[in-house]
């Protein structure tokens, strides 16, 4: 397991009403990230953070930071307001695909094998606003073309229940698997944002296993929320047991990729909040090596919740365990 962070969260942030922090260069963001312990990599946004690709590459090398993924933004440009993959305008769909192709080229230059993309502008807001079948076909066609370009680079699709549209096209683990299958499945994967899964009423651990059972590579974003909105809190802030379970299944399946923190430090110092997040993840990951996972696995196979919970409580809290061992 390696830890990474998303560069964008180390600069100015915005919500619907307010702005937070100051606008800083990608080089300032990388310098801040280099001060976060346990973090080895960064997820960097294309095209907006890669306008000086060669200089960014040099800075990454100087700071000894790898690139976990290139995040291709197909939602912020004005052209994408009515969608990117599912846009009714063929020229806009072409631009989205070109963004992904340029992102793949950047990934090669930066030494990563993955681009990730969350098509948030694809969806609809009202009944009788969209031809659902046509929008689906357009998305599949765009994904297929982008996946086939530079096939050594995986295109990893990220789902979200909603935002910026009232209802999105890519809203769940299952729908994302269907898109990958419809597009041919080759060179495609899924970015599993555990906050998005929880926000959509899914178990992050179950979502992980569903992706892997369908033979798709997974890339991980971690954060948390209260189920009402995608707050991007630190991992485990609201759903500690679900986060621990998710890490357990990552370890059980031999995951050795990046765990990338997708946390929004609106009112906190980003270096401090990402340090706390990284420390929590590192501690839990190492703690999972100290428990009797074979015994726990047996409890899970037999759906024995109480013995499993007692075992975990005792290992976590010792004599202070809530349930007796």
Structure explained in plain terms:
This protein is α/β, with parallel strands linked by helices and 325 residues long. The chain contains 11 helices and 12 strands. It has helices spanning 26-33, 53-63, 90-110, 132-148, 173-182, 194-199, 204-213, 240-252, 270-287, 293-301, 305-317; strands spanning 2-6, 13-14, 19-20, 39-46, 66-72, 114-117, 123-124, 154-158, 167-168, 188-193, 218-222, 258-261. The strands form 3 sheets. Strands 1-4-5-6-8-10-11-12 form an 8-stranded parallel beta barrel, surrounded by 5 helices. Strands 2-3 form a two-stranded antiparallel ribbon.
Give the SSE map.
Blueprint: E1 2-6, E2 13-14, E3 19-20, H1 26-33, E4 39-46, H2 53-63, E5 66-72, H3 90-110, E6 114-117, E7 123-124, H4 132-148, E8 154-158, E9 167-168, H5 173-182, E10 188-193, H6 194-199, H7 204-213, E11 218-222, H8 240-252, E12 258-261, H9 270-287, H10 293-301, H11 305-317
Parallel strand pairs: 1-4, 1-12, 4-5, 5-6, 6-8, 8-10, 10-11, 11-12
Antiparallel strand pairs: 2-3, 7-9
Helix pairs in contact: 1-2, 3-4, 7-8, 10-11
